[in-house]
Records
---
Amino acid sequence: MNADPKKSSDVTNEAEPTAAMTAMPVWLVALMVTLLFLSAWYFDLYGGWFEPKVFSPYVSVADVQRFQPKTGGIAETVARGKKLFSDNCAVCHMETGVGNPANGCPPLVDSEWVKSPTATRMVMLISKGLSGPITVNGKVWNSGVMLAVGDSLPGSEAEKAEKIAAIATYVRFQFGKIAVETKPAQVEAIRASIKDRTANFTAEELLKAEP
Ligand code: HEC
């Protein structure tokens, strides 16, 4: 028996640590591939391809643009007309266009005068006002007078025409469901043809004008 603990044969028998290579577990590879696939898929669906304007729930620039407020065109004119209507017409016809029977003001909602195929009558009556009997939706109105609201709008003739065009566009769009913009040039032409007129129009005269 050997009493010496440092005897070389005992030491060399201990195993040295070794560095061995083992293949990555298949499940880990599968997990990484799956995660990569899912993140790429998610990016493709919601990432907007690095476009900073695009956030979920929008998926592309085109998608974002679809929801932008429209500039120009009828929407802008309708918005401008709504404001002018509030300032110049709503006192008699009400904001909602239902009219005010107590003051002899007929409704604009679904009125055949509003739904007239062109804006000619509308421009005429806004410009010079209206009096005398008028039938609206089967009911005769005769107790009120509409003033020459258009003629008394502030500004030059071109400015008046532009405002009347916006009001006519709004009224026809909002109360007559007609989405056709009335252009200032159209209004100027109609107003030029009636410029010497000082009295209110009558319903009968409007009926003789272009519908
Ligand atoms: C002072 C009150 C008053 C104001 C302001 C006024 N109206 Fe009128 N409006 C009337 C009255 C009253 C009549 C009916 C006149 C009649 O009996 O001949 C009428 C008739 C009309 C009609 C034809 C009938 C109908 O109901 O469709 C239209 C369209 C109309 N107005 C639009 C307008 C617009 C647009 C404005 C603003 C630019 C306006 N009015 C401002 C009082 C007013």
---
Amino acid sequence: MANHEPVATGDTVRFLGAAGTVTGSKHLLEIDGRRILLDCGLFQGLKALRERNWRKFPFDPASLDAVVLSHAHIDHSGALPLLVREGFRGKIHCTAGTAELLEPMLLDAAHLQEEEARFANKHRTSKHAPALPLYVGKDAERALSRLAPHGYADEFSPAPGVRTIYRRASHILGSATVSLAWGRGGDERRLLFSGDLGRYGRPILRDPDPVEERPDVLLVESTYGDRFHPEHPSRELARIVREAAERRGVIVIPAFAVDRTQELLFVLRDLEERGEIPAIPTYVDSPMAIEVTAIYSRHTEDHDVDMAPGTARGQLAPRNVKMLRTSAESKSLNEMAGPMIVVSASGMATGGRVLHHLARRLPDPTTTVLFAGYQAAGTRGRLLVDGARTLRIFGQQVTVRAHVEKLDGYSAHADQGEILRWLGTFPGAPARTWCVHGEPQAADTLASTIRHRLGWDAAVAEDGATVPIS
Ligand SMILES: [Zn+2]
């Protein structure tokens, strides 16, 4: 494959995604003549962004020594099947938790791509005939076969002379900051990539690890670089569950299968143990969420003390929980009366089993629909939160008589205060800090806050730019 990029001199990093936006995370390192790709994510959200997934990689995938992943979210890992299909033959480094999560997540991503193409061909909604999936299950399987899992704090070498260490980022299971070092003595250079940075004091996952070495260059995420999260919202969740239980209603919770579902299950059990809510029947109705919950339970290296074995708390299972794997089990809920809780995907009600629960329950005034995550513009979730009185599901207009609640404060991303707290653990100022993974205003605000509060040299990473590491 021809390679038309300019020849870089010296060590550089090139921002190829999640620069000026939050998805498509991809940073190309050229160090000591070696090429390492940090993250290999899909662009998500608006159509103009998603179309970028169809462009050729701006480098030859076969020329990479390795990929080093920060975590399993699709906007950080979802382009791996494409990379392998286009000729990448190296290892994909990740933590043990990330390796396990990637299997259901990449296969699901491929499945969604195939479904989308099938839908486009059936309804002729694409200008391409036939519409093709971005990638298929086989491509995902090939990517999965290249995974190389590592423990936290274990040094590994993605390319000769490059020493790499993962530390906990506390964003989702397996998420890590990536510390790379190369050269020796006075010539040693370090780059630190925050990946997606999580929260302090969250249930299940341990706090972010402190940073032990001063990096020359820091790439820090800025999703909520201009925001502060509200206090932990479990008190509000308890009120909503109690009220719904009193009217013997059904609580439908559209939830992301990865992390949000597990956090909600933990908090519901905790509230039961504290006697703040009754232990009503709770159904987890998403095969992916069930698989991910099992993975979360297995990876004790990520667990905080509140997950210590033998405690009544620390379980990703309310007392009367039932996991529903088959669609027949899912449909059987339609016949059942409340009080009960149904946790189902997708988190923004854009698809998945939650749709049939909404179609069935929204017209019932005893129902509560509870959103515990970000709802993007244009999604059914956002329409409901904004007070829609009817909602289109499966081609039908469904009347909304249910209570609709939105819980703020459940987020897997550090807010500005938490990012600064993590930066406060650094033993010294990086020579240069680049804010990545943020909309322009969030990234700008974080960069100027870092300049003014910490006195560091910080700027916003520009999409496509190549910057030196020196
Ligand atoms: Zn993430």
